[in-house]
Amino acid sequence: MRLVLASASPARLAILRGAGVEPLVEVSDVDEDALVAELGEDATPEDTVGALALAKARTVAARVAEAVPDGVVVGADSMLWLDGELVGKPAGVDAARGRWDQMAGRAADLFTGHALVQLTGGAVGREVTGHARTAVAFSEPTTAELEAYLASGEPLAVAGAFTLDGRGGWFVEGIEGDPSNVVGLSLPLLRRLLAEIGVGVDALWGAPTP
Amino acid sequence: MRLVLASASPARLAILRGAGVEPLVEVSDVDEDALVAELGEDATPEDTVGALALAKARTVAARVAEAVPDGVVVGADSMLWLDGELVGKPAGVDAARGRWDQMAGRAADLFTGHALVQLTGGAVGREVTGHARTAVAFSEPTTAELEAYLASGEPLAVAGAFTLDGRGGWFVEGIEGDPSNVVGLSLPLLRRLLAEIGVGVDALWGAPTP
To answer: Can you give the pLDDT of all 210 residues of chain B as single tens digits?
Structure first.
């Protein structure tokens, strides 16, 4: 049973590797902005991340179905829900600084949509989808800390301008929910979705580590 | 400002590295069982992990003070509070299986004690201590999943017989609190303790990543 990760995110790959799974990585070329525009302004956060995750998984599934006859494609999309607005990656250093001025000392919700597309006998099979929400409480970095964090470049590459698994971890007081969801791929949700298509986590691990 | 990690835990080292800090690692030789026995049965979870963390940091501080004239030694100790009992690493596969039979589908609290000992001008300086508590809700692994997890060896090496940052992450539904605390070193708590001795996180990072 081969897992195919339809994402370019190094953090999602690291989660899977840390959890004992080496996926094939195949990045989708979904036009995210066009899809979000198509959904319209009334789309909920759950709708938006779910539609993006499914589009990514479908695109990659169609592409790899012949090469991976027995597998599961995983698509995911994360956004931060902050003050009634769904925010993705910041546009630059100034945008990231503005985001932190807004977030510091407060809480926001990280939504990740997940979609599995099964590959069976070289064909695209069942689809299952879900989403998870984790509340994140931010600390208040000092000016020197925030400037050093921005200078590291790390917050510029990620939804919500923070990382839980990197330098940003210093500035997250706590969360309510699943931490892997904040990093971009919820392991317990992925496990439940896999169970829906009859796959246990043990099937992804292969032979035990000696 | 050099950070010295008084712990053999690869998970604690990985947290610091992921958060942009490369510590010097110097493992203490504290007799943990003797110290716990000395504290007596009335010791709270906070007392126990706090005393162990401080003992580790003090031992290492005395040893490295000359070699690291300007630094901070960090000691930490983690335990799981489960059904009114403080549990550390399981004694073997059977103990880990029994622990999971007890934990599955339920919640427990992960306590980590933290102690900083400052090194100034080659001498041991101020001490600051704290502790953090994170609630962890466990899933119910299938028999096949649990046996594969036990066979991986991972749960045998860690307090509470689970990992949040490894294969065990599949079986943690969610947490309330700081995730790095569950892994063994709370970054936001460490940041607050460092602030007490006048050190910002930016001082640990050095030059920005290009």
So the answer is: 899 999 999 999 999 999 999 999 999 989 998 999 999 988 999 999 999 999 999 999 999 999 999 999 999 999 999 988 888 889 999 999 999 999 999 999 999 999 999 999 999 999 999 999 999 999 999 999 999 999 999 999 888 899 999 999 999 999 999 999 999 999 999 999 999 999 999 999 975 444
Interface size A-B, in CB pairs within 8 Å, comes to 129
Among A113, A107, A85, CA closest to A162: A107
Distance CA B125, CA B12 (A): 24
The two three-digit tokens of residue A2, written as one number: 């081969």
Please state whether beta strands B2-5 and B70-82 pair in parallel, antiparallel, or not at all (unpaired).
parallel
Q: Assign a CATH topology to domain A2-205.
A: Maf protein (3.90.950)
Contact B136, B179 (CB under 8 A): no
For A134, phi then psi, to 5°, come to -130, 130
A160 min Cα distance to partner chain B (Å): 17
Q: Is B136 exposed, middle or buried (0-12, 13-18, 19+ CB in 10 A)?
A: buried
Question: Do B169 and A15 meet the contact criterion of CB atoms below 8 Å apart?
Answer: yes
Instruction: Report yes or no for ipTM above 0.85.
Output: yes
Active-site residue, B101 included: no
Q: Tell me the CB-side half-sphere exposure of residue B200, using CA atoms within 13 A.
A: 13
Q: Give the tens place of pLDDT for each residue, A138-194.
A: 999 999 999 999 999 999 988 889 999 999 999 999 999 999 999 999 999 999 999
Residue boundaries of the structural domains of chain B: 2-205
Q: What are phi and psi of A121, to 5 degrees?
A: 55, 35
Interface test with B, best of A136, A189, A202, A205 (most B CBs within 10 A): A202
* Residues of chain B with C-beta less than 8 angstroms from the C-beta of A175: 175-179
Q: At what angle do helices B143-151 and B93-103 cross, to 10 degrees?
A: 140
Q: What's the CA gap between A77 and B18, in Å, rounded?
A: 22
